[in-house]
Amino acid sequence: MKAVFVRLGLTEIAAREFTNNGITSLDRLRVLTPEALTQLIKQIHRHNPGAGLFIPFFSQQYVHAIRFWANRMYILGLPYHIEQLNEQLANIWNEENKAENEARNLPSDIIKSPDPYKKETKWRQWKESVVTYLNSKRGQGGIPLSCIIRDDDVPQIQIAHPTVHEQLVNCAILHGNEFNTNNGIVYDLLQLLTLNGLAWTWKNAFQVSCDGRNAWKSLMNFY
Fold first, then answer.
1. How many Å separate Cα 204 from the centre of its chain?
2. How far is CA 63 from CA 36, 56, 140, 149, 213, in A?
3. Each residue's pLDDT tens digit, 99-122
4. Buried (b) or exposed (e) across 87-124, using 16+ Cβ within 10 A?
5. Angle at alpha carbon of residue 82, lines to 161 and 162, rounded to 5°
6. Are 215 and 195 within 8 A, CB to CB?
7. What angle do CA 193, 108, 162 make, to 5 degrees?
8. Which long-range contacts does 89-92 make (Cβ < 8 Å, 24+ apart)?
9. β-strand partners of 138
C-alpha cells in the first residue's frame, strides 16, 4: 500500500504514516468512512514535524477516490487490486465520487412515500409506487434501496448497464454491511406501510430479523 500512496503523490514518509496506522491493504482502506479517512489525514498533518508529512490537496482527494472505488467494486462483487491503481484511475473515481455526493444533496422529497396498504388498495399500483419510491432513495454505500427488492438474487454482472444507478440496483451484492443496513431500512418502511393492514401477516414473519428482502418476497408471492 505504501507504493500506492506514493503513486498518488504522497512522500514516502507520509505513505508510511498510513501503513503505520493500519492501512495495509485496500480492504483496510475501503472499510473506513469518508469522515474517518478525513480524520486520519488530519491526524497525520497534526503530527507533521515539518519533514515530508504534508499531503497535497489533490493527493488527499485521490486517497478518498480509491477508498470510494475499492468499496464500490466490493459492493458490485468485482475484483479490486493494488496493481490497478494509478493517478488516472484516481481521477476517474474522484469525478464519480464528486458526482454522487452532489446528487445526494439534491432535493429528496420529489417522490412522496407510498400510502399504506389497505383493504381497498390495488396491489399492482401500490407495488409500483413502492418500487418507484425506493428507486429514488439511496441507502448506505450510495446504493438505491430498490436493490433490496429486485427480482434476481444473482447480480446481473454479465449485462451492460447504461447508468451507474441501474448497475447498482441490478448488481450490488446481497450480503455484507451495506446490504444488512439497507435491508433493515426497507423492512422498517414495509412495516410502516402495512401496519394493521391485510398485508401485515405476510411480512410479520421477518420482524425479528428485520429482513426487508424476504418480507417483500413474501408479499410478492402472496399477491
1. 27
2. 12, 11, 20, 33, 34
3. 888 877 766 667 888 998 887 888
4. eebbeebbeebeeeeeeeeeeeeeeeebeebeeebeee
5. 10
6. no
7. 100
8. 90/8, 90/61, 90/62, 90/65, 90/66, 91/62, 91/65
9. 144
Check if the beta carbon of residue 14 is closer than 8 Å to that of residue 54.
Answer: yes
Q: Residues 11-28: pLDDT tens digits? A: 899 899 999 999 999 999
Ranges of beta strands (E only) in 26-158 are none
Handedness of CA 6, 9, 12, 15 (dihedral sign): negative
State how far the Cα of 132 lies from the Cα of 223, in Å rounded to an integer.
18
Cell of 53: 508529512
**Residue among 44, 46, 56, 59 nearest 13 (CA):** 44
User: pLDDT for 71-99, tens place per residue?
Assistant: 999 999 999 999 988 889 999 999 998 88
Picking from 207, 199, 203, 201, the residue whose alpha carbon sits closest to that of residue 218 is: 203
To the nearest 10°, report the CA torsion of 153, 156, 162, 166.
Answer: 10
Task: Point out which residues pair with 33 in neighbouring strands.
Answer: none
Q: Which three cell numbers stand for residue 187?
A: 423492512
CA distances to 111, 191, 203 from 107, rounded to whole Å, are: 10, 25, 31
CB-count burial class (<10 Å; 0-12, 13-18, 19+) for 176 = middle
100-103, Cβ contacts within 8 angstroms, sequence gap of 24 or more: 100/142, 100/164
